[in-house]
Amino acid sequence: MSHDRRWQIFPAQPELTAQISQRLGCHPMVAQLLLNRKLTSLSDLRCFLEPELRPDAVFPEDYMHPVLALVHQAIAQSKRILVYADYDVDGMTSTALMVSFLRSLGAEPVFKLPHRFKDGYGLSMTQVAWMQTFDMVITLDCGVTNVAEITAIVANGKTEVLVLDHHTIPDPTPPAHGILNPKVLPENHPLYGLCTAGLVYVFMKAYCELYAYEYPLKAQLDLVALGTLADVAPLVGENRRFVSYGLRVLSQRKRPGIDALLRESEFDRAYVSARDVGFVIAPRLNAAGRLADPMFGAQLLMTRDGTEADNLARALCRMNMDRQAIGQAVLDESLKQIKEQGLDKDPVLVLHGMAWHAGVIGIAASKLVEKYSRPVVMISDTGELGRGLRVLVVRWIFTNYYH
User: Fold this and answer.
1) Are residues 111 and 229 in the same domain?
2) Rounded CA gap, 123 and 161, in Å?
3) Which residues, at least 6 apart from 115, have a Cβ–Cβ distance to it below 8 Å?
4) Rounded to an integer, what distance in angstroms lies between the CA atom of residue 88 and that of residue 355?
């Protein structure tokens, strides 16, 4: 049994859509869809349909330049740098972008993406001593909420910490030496909705402009588009421009790892679309973070060796097949539990299973939300601990009110 979806119908504006259709040369239905997105000025409408990169989409200089200066100084002084990121695709693409850029500057950064089960998300106190062996720690797609951990890291007075993260900024903020976060900007700013891959791109662009450094920035937009789409960032503002241009770069398949992954996936279309990122590339990269080691994904995106790319692509595709099988088993068991216990009439589905894989229960929960249109809680019971609680209330609200 599933709940009926509640449709919200936008009011038709035939006279205005006719004018927009004539001015932009588009179908009136397209014009109405643009109005539904609350776009009103002709310049906004044109930018939405034909997005182009904006050179004026930047952070304030007094916010960005101190971070750039710290990195520039670290490079000049040959400091030991650690890049530490999240284990999802945004973390992988951010790592590939940042590490490749630092290497081009002459640095030899160490990079690590934590293991979902061994290390958990973000920084942890168990890693403080190790991180203090570096002169600089750059966190990507994590760190802004790690107040205690960063406080401990900088306590030695030697390790500088830079945080590049797009998650909500807490109060108090961590005592990092520099923080870049688009949430400091007004909500209508073109950079506000950046994921971390986009944030790293903006950082690289600003560095190149400040220090007159030549770097093939636009060639990196394939990874920015990949991270943006995989992180389901809003496709407005600079995100839309990054994805529009980045998909063209991605379709050229010049990165050995991307080309190998598409070949291994038997992808034979000439153009890689946003849907292809969501259903072909991102799941295979995410499989590493869900089941094994996300370092596989980051290494695939950075490698320039064709043989290594082929081997990594095969490994990721095998992991994805394993992830699909495990996920289907959890979903089947969940559906059986709902049926046998008559839970389909409950306003909230609360399910638990022995040793359900914590890396896939979120996907299973998402599918149950689609089927039953209500919040879902899934708990993996290890016998001693209920792990992987997932409540998909936001998805339920979207399903019920905005479809």
Assistant:
1) yes
2) 12
3) 87, 293, 294
4) 22
Per-residue pLDDT at 245 exceeds 70: yes
Which burial class, exposed, middle or buried, applies to 102 when counting CB atoms under 10 A from its CB (0-12, 13-18, 19+)?
buried
Single-letter residue type at 361:
I
Cα separation values, 350 from 30, 363, 374, 383, 390, Å = 41, 15, 11, 17, 10
State the amino acid at position 128 in one-letter form: V
Q: Which tens digits make up the pLDDT trace of 22-55? A: 999 999 999 999 999 888 788 888 888 888 888 8
Rounded Cα distance, 173 and 163, in Å: 11
Q: What's 199's domain CATH number?
A: 3.90.1640.30
Q: Answer yes or no: do 159 and 213 share one domain.
A: yes
Q: Three-state SS for 4?
A: coil
Residue with tokens 């409540």: 391
> Per residue, what are the HEC states of 116-175?
CCCCCCCCCHHHHHHHCCCCEEEEECCCCCCHHHHHHHHCCCCCEEEEECCCCCCCCCCC
Q: Number of folded domains in the chain?
A: 3
44 and 66 part of one domain: no
Residues 385-391: what's their mean pLDDT? 47
Rounded Cα gap, residues 113 and 121, in angstroms = 9
| 268 beta partners | none
Residue 262 and residue 201: Cα distance in Å, rounded? 24
Q: Which residues pair with 82 in a beta bridge?
A: 110, 137
Identify the bridge partners of residue 95 per DSSP, sorted by sequence position. none
Take residue 65 and report the two structure tokens written for it. Answer: 């330049």
Contact yes or no for 157/132 (Cβ under 8 A): no
pLDDT tens per residue, range 301-355: 999 999 999 999 999 999 999 999 999 999 999 999 999 999 988 999 999 888 7
Tell me which amino acid residue 336 is: K
User: pTM for this one?
Assistant: 0.89
- For residues 99 and 111, give the distance between their C-alpha atoms in angstroms, rounded to a whole number: 7
The residue behind tokens 């990594």 is 312
Cβ neighbors of 227 (< 8 A, separation 6 or more) are 89, 90, 92, 93, 94, 195, 196, 197, 198
Task: Note whether 247 and 391 are same-domain residues.
Answer: no
Residue linked to tokens 């994921």: 195
- What residue numbers bound the domain in which 190 lies? 61-252
